[in-house]
Amino acid sequence: MPETLIRNADHILTMNDTREELRGADILIRDGVIAGVGHDMATTGEVIEAGGCVVTPGLVNTHHHLYQSMTRAVPGGQDALLFGWLQTLYPIWARMGPEEMFVSAQVGLAELALSGCTTSSDHLYLFPNGARLDDTIAAAREVGLRFHPTRGAMSIGESDGGLPPDSLVEKEAAILEDCIRVIDTHHDVSDGSMVRVGVAPCSPFSVSRELMRDAAVLARDKGVMLHTHLAENDEDITYSKEMFGCRPGQYAEDLGWTGEDVWHAHCVKLDGKEIDLFARSGTGVAHCPCSNCRLGSGIAPLREMRDAGVPVGLGVDGSASNDAGNLVAEARQAMLLQRVANGADAMSAREALEIATRGGAEVLNRPDCGQVAVGKRADVAIWDVNGIESAGSWDPAAILLAGPTRVRDLLVEGRRVVQDGRVVTVDLPGVIARQNKLAARLAESI
Ligand SMILES: [Zn+2]
To answer: How many CB atoms lie within 10 A of CB 297?
Structure first.
């Protein structure tokens, strides 16, 4: 691959080990890797002029349900709490299939790319009408984002006292079998890998204790990560106490769901002991502030988690509970929410951006990403700070306070995904039109 030089950026927020910030600096990219960061660099390859721009590592999204971009702002789910929201949406999701999964993933990933995201995980836990994890992986390959899809699952349907309709649950043996299939087919452990698969039963209230335990055994046997929803709101805690006789942290620990190869979404209701458990075991958290606000779940104790040493990244969560998928906006929301809870000095813009970049890479066990530093993968977001939202800013590098919410350019593995504010890897207007058509068909069928 030829070289690329990002030249003369106003600011580079490297997020390296000393959190260095450079002015008027360059980044040299070779073969998908950052080969140099400094001043007055030269290349015979392509030059991207970055005067008037702030450059950051690409943002890392640690929790999403891409398929939900097909069901944004559904009237019956706009004002419901988590369990009621789920019960409104399950019958709609049950009508989706492979095409809906593919197109909604394209939309969700392109939307993330425009907001500076270079790596995204996805939590797909329902496979109606022949849909497969492979549908979303195909979409990620086309859009060009680094992708960590997780094979989710639900196995306890309504007739067994669970929340989802029986048509959306699977047999546990079949779930484990398909986990093995998608890992063997797609999981790539290499440095710079573009696809890493995880194992991810939907939540403790939609699968059995046995499946949680078997999933952990399988993931460790295969050397892949584990992911699920945990301690999202008060209903979740009550359910855990009533059904399992313990809090979610205890349940997770008992079943092998703590460790550096595990990350949990939300964790809004973790108590002090659970935060300590997560810190000691290196268990990661995907913080999803907009979704937590939208569903009224509460404010996650992010300050306490960070201070205790819990690895924390950000997630936009699914687009049925956000309903946007803008990761840089999510970082701003994370900063604001900690200030609501703990005061104006509780979280700086730079710390929130660090969580969104380096923090997310750490949660996903990607030390090769999340920093602008020599030897790291060339995942870079270039933000134009000449626009109206930054006009008059005394510190354009504090990009979450007065910065754009769309990138000018985005490179993943050194390849351009966004150029001059437009996604260049797929025909986005065509993808949006296809999504709207499919969503309209779903709406008609209800
Ligand atoms: Zn979620």
So the answer is: 23
From ligand 1's centre to the CA of 319, what distance in Å? 9
Calculate how far, in angstroms, residue 339's C-alpha sits from the geometric centre of ligand 1: 23
Residue among 116, 145, 121 nearest 56 (CA): 116
CA distances from 373 to 37, 193, 418 (A): 7, 18, 21
Question: CB atoms < 10 A from the CB of 254, how many?
Answer: 14
Q: Comparing C-alpha atoms, which of 176, 182, 74 is closest to residue 137?
A: 182
CA 318 to centroid of ligand 1, rounded, Å: 6
**Ligand 1 centroid distance, CA of 160 (Å):** 22
pLDDT single digits (tens) 32-76: 999 999 999 999 999 999 999 999 999 999 999 999 999 999 998
Q: Do the Cβ atoms of 72 and 30 come closer than 8 Å?
A: no
Alpha carbons 241 and 90: distance in angstroms, whole number: 25
For residue 103, how far is its CA from the centre of ligand 1 (angstroms)?
19
Ligand 1 centroid–CA 232 distance in Å is: 9
Q: How far is the CA of 74 from the centre of ligand 1 (A)?
A: 17
Distance of CA 281 from the midpoint of ligand 1 (Å)? 22
| Single-letter amino acid, residue 199 | V
Evaluate if pTM is beyond 0.85: yes
pLDDT, tens digit (0-9, with 9 covering 90-100), for 399-411: 999 999 999 999 9
- Torsional class of 444: left (φ above 0), alpha (ψ -120 to 50), beta (otherwise): alpha
